[in-house]
Amino acid sequence: MKALGTQLAVELFDCDENLLNDNNLLERSLIEAATNAGATVVDSVFHQFNPYGISGAVIIAESHVAIHTWPEYRYAALDIFTCGNEADPDTIAGEVKAVLRAERMEVSRILRGVTVGEQERTYAQTPT
Fold first, then answer.
1. Residue 80: exposed, middle, or buried by beta-carbon count in 10 A (0-12, 13-18, 19+)?
2. In angstroms, how far is CA 25 from the centroid of its own chain?
3. Catalytic residues
4. Which DSSP state fits 126?
5. Are the C-beta atoms of residues 40 and 61 closer than 8 Å to each other?
6. Which fold has domain 5-125?
7. Where do the DSSP E strands lie in 1-128?
8. How confident is the model at residue 85 (pLDDT cuts 50, 70, 90)?
9. pLDDT recorded at residue 128
10. How far apart are CA 1 and CA 60, in angstroms?
């Protein structure tokens, strides 16, 4: 089945709460994970909340990597969306899991744009 992209909704449980609240570490780690996965980093923005928690996004040419942390629950939600075949979203998930020292990771995989190819074939066969 051909898709335009793959999206991973990643839940990271029982992480090191200090790492979940380290804005610089998170930004560097997501950029490094994206690069190691074959993605092209375009930009990033991260925000540290008071008293704790971080939301951040790394924009990649292939789409994005975003994270939201809840240090008080030792939890992070990671969203990885890659288009094409150059970037490997599983590599990004694995590297972020290791950096945050998550004891458990749950991943939901969604293929995006699957019907687009079917629609193109249907339209191509329609007489004009």
1. buried
2. 16
3. 63, 68, 83
4. S
5. yes
6. S-adenosylmethionine decarboxylase (3.60.90)
7. 5-13, 41-48, 54-60, 63-70, 75-83, 104-112
8. confident
9. 46
10. 24
Q: CB–CB of 102/76 below 8 Å?
A: yes
Lateral strand order in the sheet of 75-83: 41-48, 54-60, 63-70, 75-83, 5-13, 104-112
Model confidence band, residue 103 (pLDDT cutoffs 50, 70, 90): very high
CA distances from 9 to 1, 23, 37, 45, 125 (A): 20, 21, 17, 19, 36
Q: Is the pLDDT of residue 119 over 70?
A: no
Q: Locate 43 and state its tokens.
A: 């930009």
* pLDDT the model gives residue 126: 45
> What residue spans define the domains of the chain?
5-125
